[in-house]
Design a protein that fits this description.
Glycerol-3-phosphate (1)-acyltransferase; 7-stranded mixed beta sheet; 7 strands; 16% strand
């Protein structure tokens, strides 16, 4: 059975994924270039992400979608178990957003170009002026119900356990007085961990926790990080 599944992956799933990725990237670039980046930078990617899950026989279930309002801008923070975290959030979150991602991802053919045109936020901490430009881009995006999704661990887990959280996403929430929504992704490590190349069928559970709203005087950075981390851990 495993052999048949690998043959299916190599000769059916992978070629289809390449074709769908190229078509989605081209559609995103063209639609964004015509001035419709808010729509083309999100909705085609929903179908793209779901196709990744369908082709790999990965089921995704969502809990807590009633906790978020599509008209409100949030900073979503999620644990990072594996590559299928991206497809889970893109395909099933149900809220228009942009990613905060590494600069190195810009160099990926088609995907990097589409991300740039769609307005994804590439983090550049090479200098103080570059950091200010990153913050300015984030501020422009975080309006009119547009939100931001960040993996505060910064990289996929090697063990499936959560690593230390970085402060970048939380500083944005503090700076712009935005509610933070913790997201728990459970099961993605079993589907495709960092040290494997091909996924296996599985079930990923996405839990959308209640927003952590800023107090009248704003967020406290340390308590914000602790509270969101505890929320994420509670659904693992």
């Amino acid at each position: 059975m495993i052999l048949l599944y690998r043959i299916y992956q190599l000769f059916v799933m992978c070629p289809l994924i390449v074709v769908v990725t190229i078509l989605t990237a081209v559609a995103t670039v063209v639609g964004s270039a015509l001035g419709f980046g808010k729509w083309w930078g999100y909705y085609p990617e929903i179908l793209w992400a779901r196709i990744f899950c369908w082709l790999a026989f990965v089921k995704v279930s969502v809990k807590g979608r009633e906790n978020i309002d599509p008209k409100v801008s949030y900073v979503f923070v999620a644990n990072h178990q594996g590559a299928y975290d991206i497809f889970t959030v893109y395909g099933y979150l149900g809220h228009n957003f942009r990613w905060m991602m590494k600069q190195s991802l810009r160099r990926i053919p088609f995907v990097g170009w589409a991300c740039a045109w769609a307005g994804q936020i590439f983090v550049d901490n090479s200098s103080a002026s570059a950091t200010r430009r990153t913050m300015a881009q984030a501020e422009r995006q975080l309006s009119g119900g547009m939100s931001l999704v960040v993996f505060p661990e910064g990289a996929r887990s090697w063990t499936g356990q959560m690593g230390p959280f970085k402060k970048g996403a939380y500083r944005l929430a503090v700076e712009f007085h935005l509610p933070v929504v913790p997201l728990t992704i459970d099961g993605a490590f079993d589907v495709l961990p960092r040290f494997k190349k091909l996924p296996v069928p599985g079930h990923i559970r996405l839990t959308i926790h209640k927003p952590i709203h800023p107090a009248s005087d704003g967020h406290d950075l340390a308590s914000l990080m602790n509270e969101s981390r505890e929320a994420i851990a509670s659904a693992l």
